[in-house]
Structure formats: structure tokens, C-alpha cells
Amino acid sequence: MSDFPYTDRFAVNRTLPEHGRSREDVLAELKAMAAAEDPTWETGRVSGTMYCGDHEHYRFLDEAFGMFAHVNVLQRDICPSATKFEGEVIAMALDLMHGEAITGTEPAGMVTTGGTGSIIHALLAYREHAAKHRGITRPNFIKPETGHPAFDKGCHLFGIELRKAPINPDTTQVDVDWVADNIDENTIAIMGSACNYGYGTVDPIPELGQVALDRGVGLHVDGCLGGFVLPFANEFGYDVPLFDFRVPGVTSISADNHKYGYALKGASTLLFRDKAYRNAQYFYLLDWTGGKYMSPGIEGSRSGGLIAAAWASMVQLGRDGYRRYAKAIFETAFAMQDAVRSHPELQIMGSPTFCFSFRSDEFDIYHVADAMKPKGWRFNGQQYPNAIHMAVTRPQTQPGVVEAFRADLDDAVAYAKKKTAAGEAPVSAAVYGGIPGGLTTEAAQFIEGFMEQMLDTQQSVPPA
Question: What are phi and psi of 424, to 5 degrees?
Fold first, then answer.
């Protein structure tokens, strides 16, 4: 049996074909694979992953993308439309994040290739700005332990010391006092999430903003997940603290267009209170034999199609479209959370928003995942503590999904009690769960080896 997919249905290309196939034949194969894979998430039982789920909207974006897919936005003299698209995406995102509250500086932004792209560009900007204006050569950055792993990745890549702040286990919000106590003369910035991926909770951004102002450091708000949903929360009467540029200490915000902005994958927005931060990470090479070279960020060539599609999504949906979808997502998420709370054996982590996590002290929560997986539910497993994560997207807002979740969860809790009484371990614990007693060096090496094998398999060439 091969780990390489579709070997039983289609020819495998182990070498470049000597003769090409017809376009019709190639498209037929692609359509067959898409038809096989889309039903998995179309049911609304998959956490996150597909944030829009509207095939009509996808077709609209595909058409917008196709007109500019071949364009390289590095060369604006050939494609001035890219400046229109990118500039307006930035302006609309600034509007959503209350850029009008910014005074005394010129706000700016950039369109990146995704959440990780926005995060690492923010880190690069803070590092370069601090080196230029504060003479910092050994920078450090502080994030809550719930902050996205992209901050760990970026700090690793850019030689920035990462300091991880603990969270309050009840609220799952960052310990602001710890952050304040661990800022020093080499701290370039701190961050908070709105909301964090794991628990769907929003860090106390106003308090972090005051710390940033008092200590003279930047504050990045990671709104990659919530940036196109949370701005509407207060309109619906939900208690979500301020997290945007109305908080004076906030100096940058990331928000992913390709999540709840309903753009195609490969688009995110990074916003700055002061363009001096953004411009600090511009790259110039003046003496290259190929001519003078510059780029606004890490990437050189970028497809104009992704920026055009992000722009098309924003102007087609408008504020009322995003508001309408956000309302349905919030209502669905809170209905699902009510279903969880109906079981005293289950506890929701903190006070979440449109995504949430739940655990149990009565049984291994992965028994619940085991019971619901055959019914099509795909959760994200969590650890320290072991929990199940559900990010509500538009597919979950379909009629009947909440009712199915409630009924299947009832059965899953009964299943978990039965398995626990029998002393049986859950199957999914090996994939989802933390290591009992903590992550030892030996356990870490074993897990890394297992994960390396997974990545090797996912990027493997076809077997002979």
C-alpha cells in the first residue's frame, strides 16, 4: 500500500512526460480529485480550514484571479492595477481597524502571502526599526504562550530572542504583569492575540497597550484569525475588548484576507500605525550587476492574481456582507458552545469568541474525538491541557449542523464515559495529546522524528 495518493485512479508522473496531454484530459483529472475531496468539508463538520465554503464565491474569485494570475507585481510599470488593488486593500483594512484613530503618524500597510507572512514581516520590521532608531543588536520579543507558532518561527529565522509569557489558566489570557516585568532595554515589541487560535480568546490589548506606551516598545496585535470577524462583535452586543488602532499603544495589526476575509489562500494584510515601521524592512541592493534591486518585503515576485482576488472579495462583500456572515458565525459558535456546556463533564477554556476549545476532568477528551470522527467531525487536538478545538466558519452555519453537533456530542460523551469505565485509552491520543509527565528530551526527539516522517511523506516523490 502506497502513501502516495491517487495511485489507484490516475497515472503517476515519475518523469516529465515526453508528450503532453490534452487540456481537457488534464482538467478532467483535476475535477475528479476536487470532486472527491470537497465533500469532506462541505458538510460543515470540519473545524476551520475552509472559511468561506461558497463555491459561487470561489468561482467569482477564480475569475478575478485568472485575469492577473500571470502578472508579477514586482514590476508595477507593467501592471499599475496592482498598486490600485494593494493600496485599496490596505485602506479598507485600515478602515476596518479604525485607522482614523491614528494621529501624529502616517499609517501604512502591506499585503503578504498569509498569516505567517504578516507575522514574520512584523518581526522583521520591529527588528530593523529598533536597530536603526535604538541601536539594538540583541533584540528580544515577548509573546503569550498562546501566541501563534509563526512568532517562534520568525524569531528563529531573524535571530530574535523569544520570551514566552504565561497565561491565566482560567481566562487563557496573557499575564500582563509578567510581560511588563520581562521587558528590558533590548525588547523590540510585545504581542497579544485577537483572538488566539487555540482558545478563541482575546488578550487584554488595552492593558498591553499601556505597558507598551509606558516602556516604549511596539505592540503587535495578531488578528490573523479574527481580523475580519471581531470588528463586528460589539455591534451584536458581544463583550469583546478593544484590540485595534483605537488602543493608543497598538503599533501593528495582522489580519488574514484568506481566512474570514474570504479571499483565496495566499493573502493577508499587515498594518502599521507609523509607516516608519513598515519602511524599516524594505530591502535595497544598489550595486548588483543586474541593476538596482528593491522589494517591499521578503518575497520578490508575487502573483497579481492573489491581490486582485483579495480586493475583489472585499469590494464585492462590503461591510454589510462581512457583518452578515460574522453574525451567523457568532450565533453558530455560541450555540455550539451551549451544547458543550450542557454536559457538566465538559469545560470550555476561557471566554471564547467564534472558535472555542473544551476539555474534561472526568474522562480523556480524545474519546470524544474518537466517537465523532466516524460521523465526519474533524477537530483540532490540543495539549497542555488536552482539549478539542473547533473553529466555526461559514460551512458550520448551514442548517442542521448545530443540531448534528449537539446530537453527536451527546453520543460522544456517553461513549467517553463507557470507554473510561472500561479502562480503555483513546485512539487519537497518540496524535493529539501531550506527553504524560511533560515533554522530555527523549519524547521530543521521538515526536520530531515521527513528524519529520510525516512531512517527508507529504513532500515525497512518487514511489518506483
Answer: -95, 145
| Alpha-carbon span 437 to 440, nearest angstrom | 8
Torsion, Cα of 52, 58, 64, 65 (10° steps): 90
Does residue 167 contact residue 161 with C-beta atoms inside 8 Å?
Answer: no
Cα gap 235→323, rounded to integer Å: 9
Nearest Cα neighbor of 211 from 266, 254, 272, 165 is 165
Give the other-Cβ count within 10 Å of 379's Cβ.
24
Phi, psi dihedrals of residue 108, rounded to the nearest 5°: -155, 180
With CA atoms as reference, report the closest residue to 89 among 271, 295, 233, 259: 271
Nearest to 395 by CA among 57, 42, 47, 49: 42
Tell me the C-alpha distance between 261 and 342, whole Å.
32
Query: Which candidate, 242, 176, 245, 169, places its Cα nearest to that of 208?
Result: 176
139: left (phi over 0), alpha (psi -120 to 50) or beta: beta
Q: Quote the strand ranges of 256-331, DSSP E.
A: 268-272, 283-285, 293-295
Closest CA to 97 of 278, 245, 259, 260: 245
pLDDT tens column, 377-407:
999 889 889 999 999 999 999 999 999 999 9
**What is the identity of the amino acid at 224?**
C
Among 385, 366, 346, CA closest to 424: 366
Alpha-carbon gap, residue 395 to 292, rounded angstroms: 48
> The whole model's pTM is what?
0.94
Q: Provide the pLDDT for residue 456.
A: 84
Q: Contact 354/231 with Cβ under 8 angstroms?
A: no
Tell whether the torsion through CA atoms of 113, 118, 119 and 120 is positive or negative: positive
Res 443: pLDDT: 76
Query: Could you give phi then psi for residue 73, rounded to 5 degrees?
Result: -75, -5
**Secondary structure in 3-state letters for 125-140:** HHHHHHHHHHCCCCCE
Q: Is the dihedral of CA 393, 49, 112, 85 positive or negative?
A: negative
Report strand pairing: 293-295 vs 283-285.
antiparallel
How far is the C-alpha of 49 from the C-alpha of 81, rounded, in Å?
A: 30
Length of the chain: 464
Which residue's C-alpha cell is 468561506?
Answer: 52
Q: Are the beta carbons of 348 and 372 closer than 8 angstroms? A: no
Residue linked to cell 500597510 = 109
From CA 447, how far away is CA 433, in angstroms rounded?
Answer: 11
The residues pairing with 387 across neighbouring beta strands, listed in sequence order, are 382
